[in-house]
Amino acid sequence: MPFRGKYYNWKPYTGGGVKPCALNCLAEGYNFYTERAPAVIDGTQCNADSLDICINGECKHVGCDNILGSDAREDRCRVCGGDGSTCDAIEGFFNDSLPRGGYMEVVQIPRGSVHIEVREVAMSKNYIALKSEGDDYYINGAWTIDWPRKFDIAGTAFHYKRPTDEPESLEALGPTSENLIVMVLLQEQNLGIRYKFNVPITRTGSGDSEVGFSWNHQPWSECSATCAGVATNAILYLWLGEQDSWLPSKPTPLLLHGLVSRSAVQAASSFSLETKCIASTVHLDHCRQRNKPIPQV
C-alpha cells in the first residue's frame, strides 16, 4: 500500500511519543515514522520491558504470574511474589582516572544479575562501555562511540542513554546470562560513576555441589501436540534437586503461552518427568524420567 504516493519498506517503531498499542511504522532508510493502524494485534506486548499486552488498542496490565489483571509483582530479585531474600544488593562509586586517558574497569557484573544501573554523577566527555569476560566489547569499544539505543546483550536489554542535558547512563532489568564488565573510556578527569545491581545468592546443597535456580524468559516454541483440537503448551515447575520437595511448596504452574486444559494435565499424571520441568502433553527434550509424582494442579 503506497504512503503519500510512494512505496516504502516498513519496520516497527516503538520509540517515545507514540501510543504503545497503535501500529507505528518507521520507513527504512528514512527519518520518519507514521501510525499505520490505530491498534496492533491483540496480545502484542505494550513495550519490550513489560508483560502488559494490548487488547482492542488499549494496554492491559499482566502480573508477573502471566495472568491478565493480576496484582502479582516481582521483588527486587525479579522473583514473582518473592520477598527479596534470594539476592544481594551491590552498590559502589568509581572515580579513578588515568593521566592520559583510555579504558578503565569500573565493576564486574556477575551472571544472573538484575536491576542493573550505571550512571555518571555529572556530564563529561567520558563514555561508559560494556564488554564480555573475553574482551569483546558490546558498547563503546575500540574507541568508537555508539549511538544511544537499546542493546540486546547477555539475554537482556541494556538501555544506553546519553541525553544532551543529563549524565550518561546504562540500565538493564536482567537477569544476565553471562558475566559482564563495565568499563569507562576516559578522555578527561573522572568525576565519578555510581553503579548498583542485585546478584543471586548461591544456595548450597547437602554435598559439595551447588544448587542455584532462576527463571528466565525464553522465546516461544512450537507446540508438538494438540488437545481437543487446539494446541497445548507446557507447564513448568522449579525443582530444587537437593531437597525432597517442589518449589514453591504449593506449586503454581508457569504458563508459557496460551492455555492448557485440566484434562490434559490429568492425562499427563501417568507420566513421571523431573529435572527442572514437567510437561503436560508437550515433548520437552531436556526433561528426563525419575520416580517423582507430578504435583496436583
TrEMBL record:
Highest taxon of source: Eukaryota
Localization (cell): Secreted
Chain ranges of the ADAMTS/ADAMTS-like Spacer domain: 90-200
Location (main, coarse): secreted
TM region(s), chain numbering: none
Keyword Secreted attached: yes
Keyword Secreted attached: yes
GO molecular function ontology, one term from the record: metalloendopeptidase activity
Pfam families named among the record's database cross-references: ADAMTS_CR_3 (PF19236), ADAMTS_spacer1 (PF05986)
Keyword tags: Secreted
Gene Ontology biological process terms from the UniProt entry: extracellular matrix organization; proteolysis
Residue span(s) of domain ADAMTS/ADAMTS-like cysteine-rich: 17-87
Cellular component GO terms, alphabetical: extracellular matrix; extracellular region
Name used for this protein in its record: ADAM metallopeptidase with thrombospondin type 1 motif 6
Lineage summary: Eukaryota, Metazoa, Chordata, Craniata, Vertebrata
